[in-house]
Design goal:
Length: 170
């Protein structure tokens, strides 16, 4: 079974939005569920992150940075941390979206030149993580964890909206 983010990505790029009776995972079902999930006010950041991951619009990215920088500023104030919450939010969101390791192409292993396969050697640049390093401060770590949580919230919301339609066909 495909993950919901894969279904959403396919639905965003399809040219066929025909609604098929007695289905819950057609492209129109998935897009409709994502739209309805976004209307819930709590954790709006989760659905904005979902939108940024799959649409990549600059306006949504800046909206996400604004929300996350406010949440981070509150967290930093509560924990008496120092730093520019907006700058950190921009760094973490940029890393989240574009932090793929360039030398290995995000594969985690060194490529063998002229060969279609990878070597057994872990990439020296990323040490097999497939991403460039993210600065290691408590604020960066907190925001990274927050983004992971938001992504799981968004996927769960979309899945709940889709599964609500399943009861009609039981």
């Amino acid at each position: 079974m495909k993950k919901i983010n894969e279904r959403y990505s396919v639905a965003r790029n399809t040219s066929n939005l025909k609604s098929v009776p007695k289905t819950t995972f057609s492209a129109s079902d998935v897009l409709g569920a994502a739209g309805m999930a976004r209307q819930v006010r709590e954790d709006t950041a989760a659905m904005i992150l979902w939108e940024v991951n799959f649409k990549g619009k600059a306006q949504a990215k800046m909206e996400l940075v604004d929300i996350l920088s406010k949440q981070l500023a509150f967290h930093m104030l509560r924990n008496r941390s120092q730093g520019d919450s907006r700058k950190i939010a921009i760094e973490v969101v940029s890393w989240w979206l574009y932090g793929t390791c360039k030398p290995c192409g995000g594969l985690g292993y060194e490529q063998i030149s002229g060969a279609p396969t990878l070597s057994a050697r872990v990439c020296k640049s990323c040490r097999g993580t497939k991403k460039v390093p993210l600065p290691r401060t408590p604020a960066h770590d907190w925001l990274h964890d927050r983004l992971s949580l938001l992504q799981s919230i968004a996927g769960g919301r979309v899945m709940r909206k889709i599964s609500a339609g399943l009861s009609d066909f039981s």
